[in-house]
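The protein record passed on for reference:
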Amino acid sequence: MDSRNPQELFEDMAKQGHSMFQDFSFHESQEMMSQFGNSWNTIMTRAMESPDEWVKTLSGFYQDQFELWLNMFNPAADSNVQAVRGDRRFVGSEWEESPVHNYLKQSYLLSSRWLTGMVNDSTLDDATKKKCDFYTRQFIDAMSPANFAATNPEVLKETMETQGQNLLAGLENLMNDMEKGSISMTDESAFTLGENLATTPGSVVFENRLIQLVHFAPMSQQVNERPILIVPPCINKYYILDLSEDNSYVRYCLEQGNDVYIISWKNPDQTLGDVTWDEYITEGILPATDAVKAISSASKINAVAWCIGGTMLATAMSVLASKRKKPFASVTFFTTLLDFSDPGELGVFIDESQVKQHEHKLAEGGVMPGKQMATTFAMLRANDLIWSYVVNNYLKGKTPPPFDILYWNGDSTNMTAAMYTWYLRNMYLENNLVTPGAVELCGVKIDLRKIDCPVYFLSAIEDHIAPWKTTFTGTELVSGKVEFVLTGSGHVAGVVNPASKNRRNYWKDGELAKGAEHWLDTATDMPGSWWTHWDAWLKEQGGKQIDAPKALGNAEYPELEAAPGSFVMEKSV
């Protein structure tokens, strides 16, 4: 425990206060509040156009609140308001044991329900309604009585039992997080890359300014003659697919008899700010593909890509096809958007005004900070990814438990200004990728129909970053034979679902070409991990068994350094 007294701690906290939000743009926050205020002004103005309905709605709300007040000391009363399923903010028994805090909880839930109902019942257009609903929920989440020491009975109990030591520990946690610029979601001291994360043996066999290519040591005597090249997202580090030993997709691929390579993207700094999407193809995916083919002597290889890595790979495949090159025997897309018509809640951050602000801000180059993007993603699930840690770390003074996925989640990477702004406009704002020829890269018109090898699409039913019904549209944009699988859980946990643990479920064999809902209605619900299903599918795509390579790389692509390589170690500043 820090030896300084509380006054010194508070003074230190005040000095560091701005650093935690240093990457949050004033103009972005101004735009957010402007849209929120304008939407609610419109709602209230239109509500007053029908004063009878407005008075009826308001009177009903006040009546419900009055009943809560009258029944404060009668928890079993019919006026109890229950939290929605999955809301863990009020699961502690202390909320039920204290009549006052039980009332605060129910009053808050009632007010929340009333506010969101006002938005849902408003006459706003759909786009404006989605934005207003999102920012209203941000406000609601922030104002929860669970987020404040004086109104959270669990925190009050902790404070009494520890004689306030939890608050001092929490203050220290807050200052540490301010210094690093993000909220701690796990005990980061429990993990070290190369020791208990990203431990699968291998070597870097190629490097340029944008990538390192890692070749992993085989784990079987024979391997498929067609190696696997994995293209992870460039906005995250590759070891999400090589976490702890029992949570590693890379290790699973090796154990099933594959020769595996993965791209480790450079975490760009200001000097790489002008690197474009074209260059990520020509200096990233294409040389990695050439290297894998050269090392393995394979005429064709299998590719696996995740999220934006999948979008990048799809454009690279179109570029290659336009030049009469088709090096891929199959391709697997994890939670990948090819059609961006409905990006889900991310859409609230993307309109002409907001994209122009990014373009203006990044016009001189530089990078889009990874921490800022991480904050944006966290806002999509604020209760789980922000406020729960505020309560645990700062009010209760606890250190969150070790969790490899959350360690990776906090290890953010930047995006180059040129690539980021191009990506926002051409994909999210204008959705150009779905129109053949609307996007030109590497001197050729992009047409996703030129992807004519077998394609495996994996989506996640609770994905809030790449909504599954939108990713499903990708099945209709390619020409190859398609396999679509839907897994339980979300964007990360749905993918990282080891076969050895065999958790959750997945859906398969739905009828394609008739829309996402029809596919799900006709699909078969299977227990356990989708990994075994994918492995069986990959084996069906062919490729004879050959002796596993005796060494990593070759004379042209020698071993440069041991896996996981130096690029993955670089931290965002």
User: Anything to note?
Assistant: The longest helix spans residues 26-48. The radius of gyration is 26 Å.
